[in-house]
Specification:
Layout: H1 3-43, H2 51-160
Helix pairs in contact: 1-2
Length: 183
């Protein structure tokens, strides 16, 4: 609710209060007047209202009734406005509550996002890790096969050259190789 609406509501309420007070004052005056008239009429049997006073009183009463009707209409109008404003206030409060609840929910979801993201990322990484492990196993197997093929190729190449490659052992002193028959 804006400040101007609040001020307007306050002024309407003060106006209604003032009008109610005026209405009560008039009701009291009318009651006092009717009691006084009753007392005068009851106590004085010869009392006959004078026509000009009676007409003047009737005119005043008519005017007071018209004013009373206007005041009642104003009070009804202001009550309708207050009811409408109260409904607006209630709707706005409900809307604020709903938006506050939604905001809290979104804040909570935002706080949970890193955990959710991490979990989803880990779930998505499982097939990738499995594929990497499969590729590494396949790579090791291919490496073993490559070494085997390389060894076979090397053996085959040595056979075609009829040369035997013997491992070279380090000799400490160079010289002729001793023969087993002469020793």
């Amino acid at each position: 609710m804006s400040i101007s609406e609040s001020a307007n509501n306050n002024s309407l309420r003060s106006e209604i209060s003032r009008l109610k007070e005026e209405l009560q004052t008039r009701d009291q005056l009318v009651q006092q007047l009717s009691q006084e008239l009753f007392r005068l009429v009851k106590g004085n049997t010869e009392f006959m209202p004078q026509p000009e006073l009676s007409d003047r009183h009737k005119a005043e009463m008519r005017m007071l009734r018209e004013q009373l009707q206007e005041v009642e209409q104003q009070v009804t109008f202001y009550q309708q406005q207050i009811t409408a404003r109260d409904q607006e206030v209630h709707a706005l409060r409900r809307s604020v509550q709903e938006l506050s609840d939604r905001s809290r929910m979104l804040e909570q979801a935002l706080q949970e996002m890193p955990h959710i993201y991490r979990r989803k990322f880990e779930e998505r990484m499982v097939p990738v890790k499995e594929k990497i492990e499969r590729i590494q196993r396949e790579n090791r197997q291919l490496h073993v096969e490559l070494q085997s093929v390389s060894y076979r190729l090397a053996v085959k190449t040595r056979r075609t050259t009829n040369k035997v490659d013997l491992p070279a052992f380090g000799r400490t002193h160079p010289g002729p190789i001793p023969r087993f028959g002469t020793v």
